[in-house]
Amino acid sequence: MRSETISVEGRRHEVLRDERGPAGAPTLVFLHEGLGSAKLWRDFPERLAAALDRPAFVYSRLGYGGSDPTPLPRPLSYMEDEARSVLPRLLDAAGIERAILVGHSDGASIALVHAALDGGHRVQALVLEAPHVFVEELSVASIAQAREAYEQGGLRARLQRWHGANVEVAFRGWNDAWLDPRFRTAFQLEGFLPEVRVPTLAVQGEDDEYGTLAQLDAIARGVRGPFERAILPRCGHAPHKDQPELTLAAMTRFLAAHLARG
């Protein structure tokens, strides 16, 4: 995939692009997790793009990977802010007129909000890995454990490999927001779901340590477009890493069927 930077209002985003596929085809847009980056998707975007013969666009949000830093603390509305303000401007700057959003964890939540606000103008479908639409005790407990691993274990060193000088911004921006007691009421995305009218696939591991299937149940109740789910065995919070072949097969099947109809 080709590496580049794209600026939105003077702030640079790290971007990886694969420009295969027929002219005018919707682009697979990958939105990373709360501790992720464009490069932390590793080869999965390229594999999905090849399986579908569609272009791919992978970016690091501000404060992650090789993108410009952003001030701390992040506002508790940071996912909604990304969906409402940053993502549409970035897609405009990249010349992406039709998109299939593939989001993981925080990125999946951002994708849902953006699809609701987009009204089907640009977003053609959603693929959501381990999405969150409300706060669960399991999530808070696991995020508290991540703080301990960052401060006392080896997590900081592992993350620095991917985020470099952004490592503190990446970790604290995510971790401090989720562990703020106000986040339980600030982060409530179920009200956006009725405006999601595009086909949606949700993928979750049976052993996800950050969320339960109640998240998928809420999305299934709320969205107005076709909804499917894939629950993967022996799989934690990152299906594309824990079960890459099963995840690739589920996404390819779903999107190939949608593209054939569209």
How would you characterize this protein structure?
By secondary structure, the chain is of the alpha/beta class. It has one domain: Rossmann fold, CATH 3.40.50. The protein has 10 helices and 8 strands. The chain has an 8-stranded mixed β-sheet, sandwiched between helices. Helix 4 runs antiparallel to helix 6 and helix 5 (155-163) packs across helix 6 (167-179). The protein starts with a strand and ends with a helix.
CATH topology: Rossmann fold
**Top-tier CATH class:** Alpha Beta
Q: Architecture, according to CATH?
A: 3-Layer(aba) Sandwich
Number of helices: 10
Q: Name the shape in a single word.
A: globular
Fourth CATH level, the homologous superfamily = Alpha/Beta hydrolase fold, catalytic domain
Taken in chain order, the helices and strands follow as EEEHEHEHEHHHHEHEHH
Count of spatially separate domains: 1
**What is the SS-derived class?**
alpha/beta
How many E strands?
8
* Spatial ordering of strands, largest sheet: 1-2-4-3-5-6-7-8
Low-confidence stretches: none
Tell me the radius of gyration: 17 Å
| pLDDT averaged residue by residue | 97
CA(first)-CA(last) distance: 26 Å
Residues in β-strands, percent: 15-25%
Helix content: 40-55%
